[in-house]
């Protein structure tokens, strides 16, 4: 029986491959707006809520701020230490981290929520306005990329 060319992806690899974009990701030849990380409160994942002037005629300021604030809240939730994350870590240590073959970590579950939220925001808010929000996990959590689909790259 011949082997198929199939590789199983972990949930994190699945999300980082652009599948959370509901379409594979932004085109390469369009203008992009970058929302940088906010390091004023330390190194926790948090993005600036300052409204970029390039989006002034494209999207409502409140819709943009809602998206960024919601993403920031998801990352706060992902990084929050709790009794369950402590027990998860202890169990991982006791099993030689083999438990992660069977289950997702709390952080991975939150990243899945973020990918779903980005996809929903693209479908409801951004794509109808000619924009595409890129999941920050695909950019190494360094920035949020918003592509302006009908403007060529400059």
Description of the molecule:
It contains five helices and three strands, in the order αβααααββ. With 154 residues, it is α+β, with helices and mostly antiparallel strands. The chain has a three-stranded antiparallel β-sheet. The longest helix is centred in the C-terminal third of the chain and has 21 residues, at 106-126.
The share of residues in helices is 40-55%
Taking the alpha carbons of the first and last residues, their distance comes to: 52 Å
Summed over residues and divided by their number, the pLDDT gives a mean of 86
Strand order of the largest sheet: 1-3-2
- How much of the sequence lies in strands comes to 5-15%
Low confidence ranges: 1-22
Helix/strand structural class: alpha+beta
| Number of separate helices | 5
Specify Rg, calculated over alpha carbons. Answer: 18 Å
Biggest β-sheet, characterized?
3 strands, antiparallel
SSE map:
Blueprint: H1 11-16, E1 30-36, H2 61-79, H3 83-94, H4 99-102, H5 106-126, E2 131-134, E3 143-152
Antiparallel strand pairs: 1-3, 2-3
Helix pairs in contact: 2-5
Q: What would you say about this model in short?
A:
The chain is of the alpha+beta class.
Keyword list:
3 strands, disordered N terminus, 40% helix, elongated, alpha+beta, three-stranded antiparallel sheet, 14% strand, 5 helices, 154 residues
